[in-house]
Each structure stands twice: as C-alpha cells, then as structure tokens.
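User: Can you predict the 3D structure for this chain?
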Amino acid sequence: MTTGTEDPSASSGSGEVGARDRARLAATLYRVAHLTGTFTLRSGATSSEYFDKYRFEAEPALLAEIGRALAPLVPTETEVLAGLELGGVPLAVVLGGVTGLPTAFVRKAAKPYGTCRLAEGAEIAGRRVLVVEDVVTTAGQVVASVGELRSRGAVISHALCVIDREAGGSEALAEIGVRLVPLFRMHELGPG
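Assistant: Here is the predicted structure, written as structure tokens:
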C-alpha cells in the first residue's frame, strides 16, 4: 500500500498500475461509459458529455480492474472505506476486497426504520474513513456526506473517486479539509 500521494502513472509492481495499463484503463472507461448529448448533472449544470458510472460498475472484470487501480491511492492510515450511495458502494466493496479494509455503506439520509443509520456496515466513529465516490463534479453530495459522517465521529481527510470532472469538486472539498484523490481527471479520458 502507498501513502495516497504517489502519481498512479508512475506506479509499477504487484497490485499497482503502470503507465501503459493506466492509459488502457482510461481508454476502456471512455469507451464503456462516455456518452454524448445533453445531460443535467446533479449540480444542476448541463453538459454535452456524461460518464455513466453504472456502465463501468456493472462490468465485473472492469470494476475489479478499477479496484486494483484505486488501491495504491488509498492513504495508509485508512481504517474504513465509506462508499457513498449509490455509485460509491460497488467501488468501496471491490476496493475492500483488494485492500482488506472494512466497508461502510453511506446513505444520502438515514433510513427512518430498522437501524435508522446513515452508515451501515463497518463502524465509523473514531476511525479514519476514506470516502469513496464514482464521479465528482462539484462534490455537493460528497461535502454533505462528509459533514454527516463527521457528525457521527468519522475522521475524514481524503475522498477517492474514479473520475474528477474538474468542475470545482476538488476545491469544494479542500474548503472542508478533504483532499480529493481521483484515479482520472476529466482531461485524461479520451478514446485513446
């Protein structure tokens, strides 16, 4: 495991992603999940291109490859992976399988029945938690979820995502003391 500060394009060796594999993975993500048209994003902004995370998360082999590529980016002090509803959950599960870290499943709101919990699975209180998300645009939901998790005792300094759309999410997270660590930034993705 690395500290989460390394450049993934410079990695090599067991479980890490080299530059050639990284370029191939970027091209595969683009081919599988990139759509064009007119799309309204969660932030309310419109975009002429969209990365449909469910297309890459629904492919078991590709999801496993993404998990292996994300693993070297997990900060060494991480004790729990927190997958955000809905797209962050399969990523956190596959990443937990690679790293051996326990996983919490984070709802957008605590359910009003049963356990009435916001985060199910691994305990988060007093633990160093890495938030896992699929695609980050403005980070509105990530910021809200970090606030809710912190109010329940989680210690959060990093968030990990597959794609940073480079639309202010990293800056919004920095304002609350969270460093966004993307596998890819939007400008790195293309047909290859």
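Residues 8-188 form a domain with the Rossmann fold fold (CATH 3.40.50.2020). Residues 1-15 have pLDDT under 50 and may be disordered.
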